[in-house]
Write a structure and sequence with these properties.
- With 145 residues, the chain is mostly helical.
- Among the domains are: 40 residues; 45 residues.
- The chain is 85% helix and 0% strand.
- It is built from four helices and no strands.
- α3 packs across α4.
Amino acid sequence: MFNIGLPEFLLFAIVAIVFIGPERLPAVARWLGKQAAKVRKAWREIQADMEEDEDFRQIKIASRKLKQELSSVSRELSKAGEDAKLDDSAESGQKVDDTSTFDDDVEMLRQSRAAGETPIQRYHSTNVATTTETTETTEESEEQS
């Protein structure tokens, strides 16, 4: 690390013995060893933090890309669903019901919780009932005419 050879080390030891003294040299060496360990530990923590920051930055970049991809897929699915809904309604001759609002969805969730159903069960039960009623009404009107 410091590229110290044997002659430099001996010179350092002689200077330490002269200035510190032989009786205090072991205590000073212990103290220097502890300080060197603390410096190494702090350096490792700094390096780990820098690596974590780099990892965190990469994760943020990946999450932004994922959000963009998900929003684009969501838009595509939404458009495909609207197209399919329009195609189905055109084939069956029914009007498309786009009057559902966020408040209606929240109310449906509340009702499903109160009834002990999952929101999907509640959705299917209301849509199946609506479709069945519409079919029965259509059949009755055909029979009458």
